[in-house]
Design a protein that fits this description.
- With about 270 residues, this protein is an alpha+beta fold.
- It has a domain at about 85-265: Muramoyl-pentapeptide Carboxypeptidase, domain 2, CATH 3.30.1380.10.
- It is about 25% helix and about 10% strand.
- It is built from 8 helices and 8 strands, in the order αββββαβααβαβαβαα.
- It has a 4-stranded antiparallel β-sheet. The chain has a two-stranded antiparallel sheet with strand order 1-2.
- A hairpin with a 2-residue loop joins β1 and β2.
Length: about 270
């Protein structure tokens, strides 16, 4: 990927094989343009207001109506145990409720590899099966899903990161879209970068493939890992192409808005 610029916190080496052959060779891109759109905030709940007080006589003659209970916001998830792994403990990733978390705050060592890797992309068995099912469903809808990147080793990510630091306009911009070695979800075998084989970077979100994925991924156990407007929480800029497998039961709780982060869901933010 020498000379590559905008391959994201998912910055990648030369594009890997796709589930459907790409009609064009995937090439490196310039740093992403301005982020389209901003996520909307959740509506606030309001409570019913008791009626004005009546005279004693009126109150006695006519029982007062019971006040409606106030709508309550969903309680925040319990704070997980802190990540205190050191040394060889980093050979095993940090987990919250059985969900692996790898980020700048929760790193893994070079020795860590995904369990039961399978297929040409080195994904976990469960992730590969879900991706295959999702790709088939998309094809039935006339949508083409191409894998740009799957599993990446610690060593591969190290090379990707070093090239990004050299080739991006600034170190700061490189870090917004590229994970240092040990901090990339691609090392888990649970994440994939997806596109249509033609349009990459931020414009990918407006393609038929991008729109289909953003609407349906949760049905197959995936979530958009780095939502728009959540960079301060995730540590990475908006990446409409990066999807993380967490299982259908959990993914469906994220809903269709693609605004919830894994950190928020697990109580880490």
């Amino acid at each position: 990927m020498a000379g590559a610029l905008a391959l994201g916190g998912c910055a990648v080496a030369p594009p890997e094989a796709s589930l459907a052959p790409s009609s064009t060779a995937a090439s490196s891109t310039n740093p992403p343009a301005a982020t389209p759109g901003t996520p909307t905030s959740a509506p606030s709940a309001t409570s019913a207001t008791p009626s004005e007080s009546a005279s004693p006589a009126t109150a006695a003659a006519k029982p007062s109506a019971a006040a409606k209970p106030s709508a309550r916001a969903k309680p925040a998830p319990a704070k997980p145990a802190p990540d205190q792994r050191k040394g060889k403990q980093l050979n095993t990733p940090y987990e919250v409720d059985g969900i692996v978390v790898v980020s700048r705050q929760h790193r893994v060592s070079a020795a860590y590899k995904p369990k039961n890797p399978t297929g040409p992309y080195g994904l976990t068995k469960e992730t590969a099966a879900a991706l295959k099912k999702m790709t088939k469903a998309a094809k039935a809808d006339g949508v083409r899903i191409v894998v740009r990147s799957g599993y990446r080793s610690y060593a591969t990510q190290k090379g990707v990161y070093q090239r990004a630091l050299k080739n991006y306009p600034s170190v700061a911009s490189a870090k917004r879209y590229n994970a240092p070695p040990g901090a990339s979800e691609h090392q888990t075998g649970l994440s994939v970068d997806l596109w249509d084989g033609v349009t990459w970077s931020l414009p990918m979100a407006n393609t038929a493939t991008g729109k289909w994925l953003h609407k349906h991924v949760h049905e197959y156990g995936f979530v958009l890992r780095y939502p728009n407007g959540k960079e301060k929480i995730t540590g990475y800029a908006y990446e409409p192409w990066h999807f993380r497998y967490i299982g259908v039961a959990d993914a469906k709780k994220f809903g269709k808005g693609n605004t919830l982060t894994l950190e928020e869901y697990l109580g880490l933010a």
